[in-house]
């Protein structure tokens, strides 16, 4: 298998790291959901060595993630967990949960499953970081996000860019408080929640 590669991950990893660094300063364990190629897990585990980084995805992506992990052989980077949002999570409790570019890919029902999992698996005072494009009051933050949303829905009618307010409501119902909503490059946001 050829090592999978995402140019977007290369572009966004540094700006995301700059935001994660202070919010994850006191965390010890992070679960990443929908690790994709595995590039984020390698970079964040390298740059944040105080963290135990647990990547995860559906089994179909594990071979590619493992190719990235083998190249670095970091002791704080764990083999990918098989975590499909349709099913129970194969982990106990963690201090932080990170996901990038997943909410507009999976169905709304699976976004709800995400927050049900957060409620069950996040420690008190834990942090949730969600990166990706969002809508505000039904409006896209750019024409390119509008076009991207049309592409997504044509491909899969259950997917699509989510409304920030609907996500925040689910987060509140899971016991989370919004700490910050940071505008990121390329019309993305980084939502940071805390379990108080
Ligand atoms: C657009 S990719 C994002 C990957 C990576 N986080 C990134 O930022 O490049 C969406 C990811 O969601 C994952 N995904 C799709 N359906 C899922 C499900 N039911 N449960 C967990 N992950 C899922 C895919 O396997 C893929 O890794």
Written description of the protein model:
Helices cover 38% and strands 30% of the residues. The chain has one domain: Vaccinia Virus protein VP39 (Rossmann fold). The protein is built from 6 helices and 10 strands. It has helices at residues 7-23, 39-47, 62-72, 108-121, 143-155, 164-173; strands at residues 29-33, 52-57, 77-82, 94-100, 122-132, 134-136, 139-140, 162-163, 176-184, 188-195. The mean pLDDT is 98. It is globular. The chain has 196 residues and is α/β, with parallel strands linked by helices. β6 and β7 form a beta hairpin. The strands form 2 sheets. The chain has a 7-stranded mixed sheet, with helices on both faces. Strands 7-6-8 form a 3-stranded mixed sheet. S-adenosylmethionine binds next to α1. This is Methylase. It comes from Pseudoalteromonas translucida (strain TAC 125).
Q: Key terms for this structure?
A:
single chain, 196 residues, alpha/beta, Rossmann fold, seven-stranded mixed sheet, three-stranded mixed sheet, binds S-adenosylmethionine
- The coarse silhouette is globular
Just name the CATH architecture.
3-Layer(aba) Sandwich
**H/E element string?**
HEHEHEEHEEEHEHEE
Residue stretches low in confidence (pLDDT < 50, at least 5 long) are none
Count of strand segments:
10
Report, as a whole number of angstroms, the end-to-end distance. Answer: 44 Å
Q: Which strand-content bin applies to the residues?
A: 25-35%
Question: What summary fits the major beta sheet?
Answer: 7 strands, mixed
Q: What average pLDDT do the residues reach? A: 98
Q: What level of helicity do the residues show?
A: 25-40%
């Amino acid at each position: 298998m050829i090592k999978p590669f995402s140019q977007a991950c290369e572009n966004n990893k540094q700006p995301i790291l700059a935001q994660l660094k202070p919010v994850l300063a006191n965390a010890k364990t992070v679960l990443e959901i929908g690790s994709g190629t595995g590039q984020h897990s390698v970079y964040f585990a390298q740059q944040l060595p105080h963290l135990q980084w647990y990547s995860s995805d559906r089994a179909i992506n594990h071979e590619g993630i493992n190719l990235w992990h083998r190249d670095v052989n970091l002791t704080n980077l764990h083999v990918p967990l098989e975590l499909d949002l349709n099913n129970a999570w194969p982990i106990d409790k963690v201090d932080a949960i990170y996901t990038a570019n997943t909410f507009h890919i999976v169905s709304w029902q699976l976004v709800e499953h995400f927050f049900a999992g957060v409620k069950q698996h996040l420690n008190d005072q834990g942090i949730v970081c969600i990166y990706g494009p969002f809508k505000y009051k039904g409006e896209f933050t750019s024409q390119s996000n509008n076009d991207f949303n049309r592409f997504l829905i044509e491909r899969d009618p259950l997917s699509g860019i989510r409304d920030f307010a609907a996500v925040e409501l689910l987060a509140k119902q899971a016991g989370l408080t919004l700490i910050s909503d940071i505008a990121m490059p390329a019309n993305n946001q980084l939502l940071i929640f805390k379990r108080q």
